[in-house]
Specification:
- By secondary structure, the chain is of the alpha/beta class.
- Among the domains are: 220 residues, Rossmann fold; 97 residues, 2-Layer Sandwich (GMP Synthetase, Chain A, domain 3), CATH 3.30.300.
- Helix content is 29%, strand content 24%.
- It has 15 helices and 22 strands.
- The strands form five sheets. Strands 6, 7, 8, 9, 10, 11, 12, 13, 14, 15, 16 and 17 form a twelve-stranded mixed beta sheet that branches.
- Strand 21, helix 14 and strand 22 form a beta-alpha-beta unit.
- The radius of gyration is 23 Å and the shape is globular.
- It starts with a helix and ends in an 8-residue tail after the last helix.
- The N terminus and C terminus are likely disordered.
């Protein structure tokens, strides 16, 4: 059931919605581990007590690192109810030389880690949290969940994927978070929101999993902490009606899914990259016809809804303009760099004034993506401006080439970049991912696609691309594999 519009417009916090459901539907299942809304509310209150006893107070920033997603979300919910800002980490982010622990006042981690800052107290272990959850607590204290946050209170810090170096960090206010939830909630079909069963595939370092979990709890739905190894069995059994994927993970999932009883009554949201026509067909044949592909960014959230022809329709809260290299608007239909403004746009990066000035210009976010508008209200994304390749003096947009490569039988994913070393400066490097045990991809199938741009290119075929935590390809790692293996069997 969707919350009524008036309740949504009041920007209730996650804690307020949790207390609401704990009172009205205490036996409804909030987590597939068996937690009812009433039990979940009490556990959040217990963690709130533990945070307070550890001298973690409102106005501080709390870093959280644990692979236990249930405990992770408990801590995030408790922190929000106490007006504590949170940021989530994976273990590697807390290791030298890059330590994102500098962004928070306190850290709660699953295992002890070295900290160069003695002011940061590492207060969490799984044994500690288990003892907290065993403590008795009074039912009347549900009122403690109902504190109304200030609209501009900083709720959450989110990070970019970090494919090009140290991740950029942005602040998310309570008002912004509720707008994200509201915008996406009212785009979901009623058959899904009647009882939202969200299949959560990723850790809460992935921003979309965080707000989609809050959306689920806001509607009184159920969160299933799923994993790739059991996802197919869950879908076949009828578990879940809503799931979000990074595009590369969705492609791998569909390719390994057997032909069978599908399609299923399931909404799939996918972000991260364009979804080819061939992949869309396979998704609709094997999984579901309800596929939603969005172009989005951490800085502004969702931007456009992308159709089968990779033409995006702008969401109502979004404005776009296309500019040239000097920042001047270009005519409709002409390519240039995409700038975006929306009601969920952040105002800059934490501790990065130079990056902020370069990326947030006169009320617009400068995406560094290249694209054009076929008409008012539509957008086509061609690729990253900083990914525009210079191969022998020829400027090449890799995105359209990669899409054509993915349509080749046996190619699961593709990367087009350049290799730049002492021997091969500016030569096009084509990488294809074939999957474990995949057949070798013939250069003769790839050459006709590349020949329209250049006849001189290098090819590397890998079973799996090196990727970030969120599934994005690491181009420099692919280039390094090419350099190491020029005499190896992975090259065609």
């Amino acid at each position: 059931m969707k919350p009524d519009a008036s309740a949504t417009d009041q920007h209730r916090s996650a804690g307020q919605w949790l207390a609401h459901h704990a009172r009205l539907r205490p036996e409804s299942v909030a987590f597939a581990n068996g937690d009812t809304y009433y039990a979940l509310a009490l556990n959040v209150l217990r963690v709130m007590d533990a945070l307070t006893a550890s001298c973690i107070a409102g106005g501080q920033v709390l870093g959280v690192e644990t692979s236990d997603r249930y405990l992770h979300l408990l801590i995030l919910l408790a922190a929000e109810a106490l007006s504590i800002t949170t940021i989530s980490f994976v273990p590697s982010e807390l290791e030298p030389p890059i330590s994102l622990g500098r962004l928070c006042d306190r850290l709660m981690v699953s295992q002890p880690v070295a900290s160069s800052d003695p002011a940061k107290t590492l207060v969490l272990t799984l044994d500690w949290i288990a003892s907290v959850l065993a403590r008795p607590i009074e039912e009347r204290r549900l009122d403690a969940l109902e504190r109304q946050p200030a609209p501009d209170a900083l709720v959450r810090l989110v990070k970019s994927s970090g494919t090009t170096g140290v991740p950029k960090v942005m602040g998310m206010t309570h008002r912004m978070l509720q707008r994200i939830i509201r915008n996406n909630l009212f785009d979901l079909p009623t058959r899904v929101t009647r009882h939202l069963d969200y299949l959560c595939l990723y850790n809460f370092t992935v921003r979309a999993c965080y707000w989609r979990s809050l959306l689920t709890l806001q509607t009184g739905g159920t969160i299933h902490l799923a994993g790739g190894d059991i996802l197919w069995d869950m879908i076949q059994s009828g578990t879940g009606n809503y799931v979000s994927f990074v595009s590369g993970d969705l492609a791998r999932f569909v390719q390994t899914a057997p032909d069978g009883p599908g399609p299923f009554d399931l909404r799939i949201d996918v972000t991260g990259a364009a979804v080819s026509s061939r992949l869309r067909q396979e998704i609709r044949r094997k999984i579901t016809s309800d596929l939603v592909v969005t172009y989005s960014s951490n800085e502004v959230q969702r931007i456009s809804l992308v159709d089968d022809d990779n033409v995006g329709r702008l969401f109502p809260e979004v404005r776009v303009k296309i500019v040239d290299e000097n920042g001047a608007p270009v005519p409709l239909g002409q390519p240039g760099v995409i700038r975006v403004a929306s009601d969920t746009m952040v105002d800059g990066y934490i501790d990065a004034p130079g990056l902020t000035r370069a990326s947030f210009i006169d009320g617009w976010y400068h995406t560094s993506d290249v694209g054009f508008q076929p008409s008012e209200g539509t957008l086509v994304v061609l690729g990253r401006a900083d990914d525009m390749l210079n191969a022998g003096g020829v400027k090449i947009a890799p995105g359209p080439i990669e899409e054509r490569l993915r349509a080749i039988d046996g190619v699961r994913d593709a990367l087009v970049t350049t290799i730049d070393d002492n021997l091969e400066t500016g030569v096009l490097l084509v990488g294809v991912e074939t999957g474990p045990g995949g057949a070798a991809t013939s250069r003769s199938l790839i050459a006709p696609i590349i020949d329209a741009y250049t006849t001189d290119f290098r090819l590397i075929a890998l079973a799996e691309f090196p990727r970030t935590e969120t599934g994005k390809i690491r181009p420099e790692d692919v280039r390094e594999l090419y350099r190491r293996n020029t005499a190896g069997t992975t090259l065609c």
